[in-house]
Write a structure and sequence with these properties.
Helix 7 packs antiparallel against helix 8 and helix 8 packs parallel to helix 13. The protein has two domains: 222 residues, Rossmann fold (3-Layer(aba) Sandwich); 137 residues, 3-Layer(aba) Sandwich (Rossmann fold), CATH 3.40.50.1980. The strands form four sheets. It has a five-stranded mixed β-sheet with strand order 1-2-3-4-5. Strands 12-10-14-15-16 form a five-stranded mixed β-sheet, with helices on one face. Helices cover 28% and strands 19% of the residues. Strand 6, helix 3 and strand 7 form a beta-alpha-beta unit.
Length: 376
């Protein structure tokens, strides 16, 4: 299998086992200036790139560490390092990747944006992928359907023999089980745990370097950052802050973004008064429907993401408490749009859409109409 090459690459690095950082007394790398990402560091050396992912759940530990080495230089023995500590926990990854197993549609979309579609060898959760090119690639057999991202097919992974796996980590999930024993490098995609939209988007600079598209990723992010900050500055000129209620209940609970989440920051930058902005937590916080409705009665705008057609009468029929919320509904049909695929790494598109909804008086016309007014 191709990933076995990684075990015999003539590139051995001297690593520190105590903190996951490379100890190099005779050289200094160039640390990339990351203005927004908190849980990521990238240091570039002449013969490698060292990447450290901080553990987003404890704030002090390291989730994973990688040494990215150019495939051609590694195989020809042109690197300068000479030894590796077995206790370091730092994963050696030969780049650019050319046969990656990508677990999330978000990262598939980014790889497409970077012009590296051919490097996707397998994907998970096909039913949630709306990219037509990728669905066609699966249909003709060029890209393998690996099944569910929580428990992908071990047999199909072995057949694919990918050069890396790209799953998203979850707190206390227990990892990937038997799949981790295959020896394939696991690139933990923890970008979703960043606290700001631009913080998450900045992770594209790491992913770009995995696929030999580092310069492209830097360029795209620079454009994303500039546009996002321009829009946020315009939203500050709005004279009002409409009260915003997001999401809807599911199985008796209403999950809302906490104060430390990137969604809450996005609502703030769009000039909204998010009704639960002080909700303690970084991710999605489950609340009772009664508690949300009690405050949601005062909303000016109700923003809902829903897979498939949305019907307010049916919502009220299913959950009578919702009848108390009179705010107009702006909804996104996630089965028909690329909201989940595009906006994590292009938050400026969603910000533009939200500002056009919240503040039509600013005259910002959105080219990205993920949300539309629900006709009732």
């Amino acid at each position: 299998m191709r990933y076995i090459i990684l075990a015999v690459l003539p590139v051995l690095l001297l690593l520190s086992s105590c903190n996951g950082r490379t100890e190099q007394a005779d050289e200094a790398g160039d640390t990339l200036l990351l203005r927004h990402a908190r849980n990521l560091t990238i240091v570039e050396f002449p013969d490698r790139t060292e990447v450290t992912l901080l553990n987003p759940w404890d704030g002090t530990g390291v989730l994973a560490s990688y040494v990215l080495v150019d495939k051609s230089k590694a195989i020809s023995g042109k690197t300068n390092s000479s030894s590796q500590s077995s206790g370091s926990g730092r994963m050696l990854v030969a780049v650019p990747l050319h046969n990656a197993a990508v677990f999330g549609s978000v990262h598939c979309a980014l790889i497409h944006d970077l012009g590296a579609d051919e490097a996707i060898g397998g994907i998970c959760d096909l039913e949630y992928i709306n990219q037509p090119e990728l669905r066609k690639a699966v249909a003709v057999g060029r890209v393998a359907n690996l099944g569910n991202s929580i428990q992908p097919s071990l047999e199909k992974l072995v057949d694919l023999s990918p050069d890396a796996l790209m799953p998203s980590p979850f707190e206390n999930s227990g990892g990937l089980g038997r799949i981790e024993r295959l020896g394939i490098p696991i690139i933990w995609c923890a970008d979703y745990m960043e606290h700001t939209p631009l913080g998450r988007a900045e992770w594209m600079r790491f992913y770009g370097r995995l696929f030999g598209r580092g310069e492209e990723a830097d360029s795209i992010f620079s454009i994303v950052e500039q546009r996002y900050e321009e829009l946020a500055a315009q939203a500050k000129n709005a004279k009002t802050k409409p009260r915003l209620l997001p999401e809807m209940p599911w199985s008796g609970q209403w999950t809302l973004p906490g104060a430390g989440s990137s969604s809450t920051k996005l609502y703030e930058d769009a000039g909204a008064d998010y009704l639960f902005a002080n909700l303690e937590g970084n991710g999605g916080i489950p609340l009772s429907t009664e508690k949300v409705v009690d405050k949601g009665i005062g909303a000016d705008i109700w923003l809902i993401k829903h897979h498939g057609r949305l019907d307010r009468r049916q919502m009220v029929s299913d959950t009578p408490l919702l009848a108390s919320i009179k705010a107009p509904i702006w909804w996104c049909d996630t089965s028909q749009t690329l909201l989940y695929e595009e906006t994590p790494f292009h938050p400026e598109r969603l910000l533009e859409n939200l500002i056009s909804i919240l503040h039509p008086e600013l005259g910002i016309t959105s080219r990205w109409n993920y949300f539309k007014l629900l006709e009732e």
